[in-house]
Structure formats: structure tokens, C-alpha cells
Amino acid sequence: MDARLLDVLVCPVCKADLIYRKTAAELVCKPCRLAFPIRDDIPVMLEDEARALEESELE
Question: Is the pLDDT at 31 greater than 90, yes or no?
């Protein structure tokens, strides 16, 4: 994942900063409790494609 791209990407729902989880290949928005997948090094920034995070994943 390109670091420059991570600097400009924000959550498409609430515009909060995203956390990159390399091992899970996803970008996480803590305020929305959503994880956006990264497929073939391309972030899929669609709310319908995001998965809801469990409480334990927010820590």
C-alpha cells in the first residue's frame, strides 16, 4: 500500500482518518466501526463493501 495514498484517504462515510491493517489487508475507520477491504493493492472505499467491526477489533 502506497504511503502517499494512505495520507489522503479518509473514511467515505464520516471523513475520519483510516488505520491500515496490513495483515488483514484492510483500512479501518474506528468512529464508523467499518473495515474497508484492499484488493490487489486497491482500497475498496464503498460502504456496501465494508465489513462491520466487532468490539474486540477496535482496541
Answer: yes
